[in-house]
Structures are given as structure tokens and as C-alpha cells.
Amino acid sequence: MILRSKVSFALALALSFLLITWCWHSSPSASSKPPYRLFESSSPLPSTQYAIATFLTGQATNDDSYFVATRVLTHQLLHAPATRCNSSSTSFLVLCSQDVSTEQKEILRKDGATVVEVQDVPLNWWIYSGVQRWKEQFTKLRVFEMTEYKRILFIDADTLITGHLGDIFDEPEVNTLAPTLSSRKEQMRKDESPFPTQWLFAARSDNQFTGEREHSTPPLQTPSFSAGFFLVAPDKEMYQHLLAVMSHFHRFDPFTMEQSLLNYVFRREGAMPWRELHWKWSATWPNEKDLDMGVASLHEKLWNTGPQRLQNIWKNRKDEMIRFQEERRVNAVT
Ligand SMILES: *[C@@H]1O[C@H](CO)[C@@H](O)[C@H](O)[C@H]1NC(C)=O
Fold it and tell me: Which UniProt keywords apply (predicted)?
């Protein structure tokens, strides 16, 4: 029995090795400069130093909640006087995967968003998760390739904005790069090369590990971060590094997808330990105290969960967005 499982394990190992080598060599990303954008015909990106980006995938026909959330986020960052960003310094991009419908992209454009159609990131066979549309969750990694921008803040669409997020680009954790720690040589596996010499990846501790909704504010720090809010200096070498890590069987837990990939690459004990952004920028599992203490963005599906007071604010934002866009379209016609 034991012998048999050993033999099948060895077989599986040999097979995976073959497959991995094959996938790696046939991966289009290994060739020179693949365009991350889906259509060459897309209009050029607005040229600003900074960008805030979110990500939309196609959805089941009976569920447009993320599409609506993306519209609400667009409204908060582009139009709402209390939370909009300075458009001369910061662009707002909606990265859309291949499956987003033409109608939805058109509505987002009319709302004022810059729609960027991006190709899915090529995945190795072992990267699998039961979650719906898991494959596309890796597509958000394209932000690492968007070197048109000096810095990109990535935000999940299910986020309530309550402050001036554009100011995050002035933070010392954000406006300088970090060196890769060559003193941690044992953490730099050869098969994951290249390692950039300088890089930036900053994120927030995840309240999921410190009491969820009961967490204190200011919150405690946690070993891993939430991948719903992170800030990067785009860098093609870093993107290649991510692909190199993804080519190795079970180097990270595929079930928690890009969150565990990023938490592996930027692990605290690694050669590129993630930088912690100040707690005032974002909270997962937000509660009323986060709101009262001025946390600038609250990550929650507030259309059906979370504290009632927060849900009410989100619903008001949504109504405001619909009124605003209706008026805009009427004015555009007359
Ligand atoms: C907006 O950004 C531009 C370019 O960085 C800057 O010159 C301008 O002062 C900013 N405006 C405000 C209101 O901060």
C-alpha cells in the first residue's frame, strides 16, 4: 500500500515536472514583450504619474453586483466632490477581463472611467480554485506590467471611499522604492529568478486575522495582507518574477489564488517583505469605529452585508451615482 502510494507520488511528480517545463516553455509571456492589452485599437491611457485601478470580470447574467459596485467606485473617485481624485495627477482605470460585455464597458466609459481591456494571465494547470471565475482573479496582476504609471493603487470594486485616497501617493512608504534584501539569500530561490533589485509593494494588514468585525481601531498588524487594496511600482521584471513563481507546482496555495501568490512573493521573512501602509488608508471587515476614526476606504460588499450604518452610506452613494449619471446623459443629449 505504502509502496503503491510512493510509486504514484513519484509518477505524479515526474508528470508535473514535465508539464511545468512544457507550460513554462510554451507560455507566451516567456517570449519578448507581450502586449497586456487585449485590443491594440484601445485608446491610449491618460498620461498621469499615478493611477488607481480596479478590476472587473464577466458575471453571471442574473448578478450584476460587481458591475454596479464598479460604477459606484467610479463615481466616488471621479465625480463625488468629497472623495474624487485630482485628475491631473491620478487616472482611474477599470481593468476588464475578456468576458466583460460590450454593453457594460460602454456604460463604464460613459460614466467617465478609462476602460482597459486586458488579457488573462497565463496560468499553469495546477492553479485551480473552486471559486467562480477564479482564473480571472490573476488578471489583476497586469497592474505590474503597466509601466505607463509610476505608481498604481489597486482597489477591489466592493469598496466604500470616505477620504482623499489620492494623497496616498505622497506617503513615504509609497514614494520610495525598497531594496531586495540580499542578506536573505536563502530566501531567494534560483528557480524564481529574476529578482528585481528594487521594488515597491505596499498593502494593509487584514482584519480577518484580528477579530474580523470586532477588530480594534487602530488595528493590529498581521503577518499577511489583504489583496483587495495594494500599491505597486509597475515593473516588468517583477511581473516576470511573479510568472516564474507561478510556474512551480504548489509554491503557493492555489485555492486562495492571487492573494496567496502575492503573500508568498512578498512574505515578511522573504527577500521582498511587503510594506505596511498606514491603517488610516483601508480596512477589511470595516466597522463603525473605522468610519468614525477616518479610515479612507472600507472594503466590504455593503450592498448586502456589514454594519447597517455603512450599508446605508453605500446605498446613498449608489443612488447619488445613478442620479448624477442620468443628469449627465440628459445634458449630453440636449
Ligand atoms: C492637481 O495635480 C496637479 C498636477 O500634479 C497639480 O499641479 C495641482 O496643484 C493639483 N490640484 C490640486 C487641487 O491639488
Answer: Signal, Transferase
Beta carbon of 8 within 6 Å of any ligand 1 atom: no
CB 217 within 8 A of CB 290: yes
At 127, the pLDDT band (50, 70, 90 cuts) reads: low
Can you tell me whether residue 197 is helix, strand or coil? coil
What is the C-alpha to C-alpha distance for residues 237 and 333, in angstroms, rounded to an integer? 46
| Residue 86 Cβ < 6 Å to ligand 1 | yes
Structural domain harbouring 141: 50-319
Q: Is 88 in the pocket of ligand 1 (CB under 6 A)?
A: yes
Does ligand 1 come within 6 angstroms of the Cβ of 49? no
CATH number at residue 178: 3.90.550.10
Alpha carbons 98 and 53: distance in angstroms, whole number: 17
Asked, for residue 26, whether it belongs to a domain, the answer is no
Burial group, residue 3, by CB count within 10 angstroms (0-12, 13-18, 19+): exposed
**Does 79 or 6 have the greater pLDDT score?**
79
Q: Most distant CA pair in the chain: distance in Å? A: 79
Q: Span 93-99, mean pLDDT? A: 92
pLDDT value at 233 more than 60: yes
Distance of CA 275 from the midpoint of ligand 1 (Å): 27
Residue 276 lies in a domain: yes
Mean pLDDT score, 219-223: 96
Model-wide pTM > 0.90: no
62 lines ligand 1 (CB under 6 A): no
How far does residue 23's CA lie from ligand 1's centre (Å)? 46
Total number of domains constituting the chain: 1
Alpha carbon nearest to ligand 1 atom 5, residue:
89
- Most confidently predicted of 21-35, 56-70, 76-90: 76-90
